[in-house]
Amino acid sequence: MNRLPNAGFLLALLLVCLSVAACAADAPLHPVRAEIPVQDDFADLAPLGDAIGDKRIVMLDELTHGEGNVYAYKARVVRYLHARKGFDVLVLESGFFDVARLWQLRQPVRTLAPGNIFYMYANSTEVWPLFDYLDAQRSSARPLELAGLDGRLSGSLSRKELVPQLRAHLSRQLLDASQTLRLERHLDQTQRLLDGQLFKADAAEQTQFLQDAQWLDTLLSAPASAHGEDVFNSDGFWRRVNASVQRMAEVVWQRRPFDEHDPVMAGNLQWLMEQAYPGRKVVVWGHFGHLNRLGGYRDGHAGGLPPVDNVTRALPAALQAHTYVLHFAGAQGRYLDYVDQHVIDVQAKPDLLEPALTAASPSGAVFIDLHAGALPGENNPAARLWSMDYQETLSLPEARQRFDGLLLLDRITPATYPPR
Q1: In this structure, are residues 399 and 319 in contact, taking their beta carbons and an 8 Å threshold?
Q2: How far apart are CA 283 and CA 7, in angstroms?
Q3: pLDDT under 50 in the chain at which residues?
Q4: Tell me: the pLDDT tens digits for 258-268?
């Protein structure tokens, strides 16, 4: 990447660095390659691996769902963690049921992804090489397996397969006639919810649906260890599906705010870590709001509701202690809005740290270990880093609370997404 900063900018950067000369030698700045080589030795990512150490979970965030080169960097980090650090499960911010069933089909991920994996991941060309990598590794001695954590079950596999498979799983239950009728009523309503046809349920139907969902949990009471050969068809798996369906309904009916999906997502991730992949090392890929350490929506909700724990914060303390959070952002550029597919411009602001930090790397990309030392601008109370959707910013002390490391780019580029 060619970068020709003007003389004024270089002078400003020099002054910033001189102001922290006493600690500049300790500044944990590690240049990262701008281009991904065909034969990748990942040498430039070794400082990241050292920083991660023996952590079992690595969270890879994104600020917008629409930065193409951020996707490309994240995909490279995933491949590095698999090839060099022993991580062998990738968990996407996509449907818990959909991705589980997609992976079990053993067909090309890129083919099955549209309609089953979150559409920005499924359709952004920068993510496709990662799907191809998953397929290429599937028959190896240590494949990189794919899973999803999101409780919003909107994929075609959920709509087509969830209810029939749940019915088949429950067919072993000895139910009397009234229980059978109750179960069939609930399964019919669940199908209508997944098809988007239960949104206008009246108060009585909502209450009855949620009561039946809680009753359904009593039918899925086998202990976690009793899953036989297929953990993804166990009572424990279906309890997580049921929890996801309940929260979908509660949010649709505005009984809960939308970000209360996060505790359910955290429960799904915990189940994956403890039951589906015990002892395995997992990479989690999702949005900043879900994955940073302090929570997603710090201002709470209209009406005075308190902030809700996001995925990372809702995990048990033991899993949080084994988690490394890597934050991705750029100084400026453009991204693709995932809602309306418009390209949004991001302009660097005064006192923004990203331009000065990425200037330390000839490629315009740098990994920063937030636990390893002071940074240029450390003592400037006005210094800021980008936060939610490039609309908000945060201070460096707050960044140190939210993340363990930063991977910063001098410029973001929009995800390449084919027209609908």
Answers
A1: no
A2: 41
A3: 1-25
A4: 899 999 999 99
Q: CB neighbours (10 Å) of residue 367?
A: 23
All structural domains of the chain: 1-87+282-420 (3.40.1660.10)
134-159 burial, b at 16+ Cβ within 10 Å, e below that, comes to bbebeeeeeebbbbbbbbbbbbebbb
Task: List 284's β-bridge partners, or say none.
Answer: 59, 91
Using alpha carbons, select from 420, 416, 377 the residue that is nearest to residue 400. Answer: 377
pLDDT value at position 25?
Answer: 41
Q: What is the CA radius of gyration of the chain?
A: 23
The mean pLDDT value of the chain amounts to: 91
Place of tokens 């995800």: 415
For 139-167, give the DSSP string. Answer: TSSS--EEEEEES---SHHIIIIIHHHHH
pLDDT tens digits for range 189-240: 999 999 999 999 999 999 999 999 999 999 999 887 666 779 999 999 999 9
Is residue 291 within 8 A of residue 65, CB to CB? The reply is no
